[in-house]
Write a structure and sequence with these properties.
Elements: H1 2-16, H2 41-55, H3 66-69, H4 73-86
Helix pairs in contact: 1-2, 1-4
InterPro entries: ACP-like_sf (IPR036736), PP-bd_ACP (IPR009081)
Protein name: Phosphopantetheine-binding protein
Pfam families: PP-binding
């Protein structure tokens, strides 16, 4: 799953235009929003679309557990891994 986490880190950088960061700058268990990486709700939408395009997984923005999936690279990797296996 470490390769998946690296892909997610690079996807965050590419999708959100964070050219000042490298994948190593994004800690896997660091919060992506607020005090962590500092992403906002617009970033979440853009990241959700990028995940859908890259991994073929649709993330329901209205689902109550979506915020949990977007908490960190670790949680996104677990969600993508589980849903890719089902697909």
């Amino acid at each position: 799953m470490s390769q998946l986490k690296l892909e997610i880190r690079q996807l965050i950088i590419d999708a959100l235009g964070l050219e000042d960061l490298s994948p190593d700058d994004i800690v896997a268990d660091q919060p992506l929003f607020g005090e962590g990486l500092g992403l906002d709700s617009v970033d979440a939408l853009e990241l959700g679309l990028a995940i859908q395009k890259r991994f073929g997984i649709k993330i329901d923005a209205d689902a109550k557990d979506t915020r949990t999936h977007f908490a960190s690279v670790d949680s996104l990797a677990a969600y993508i891994h589980a849903n890719r296996a089902v697909a």
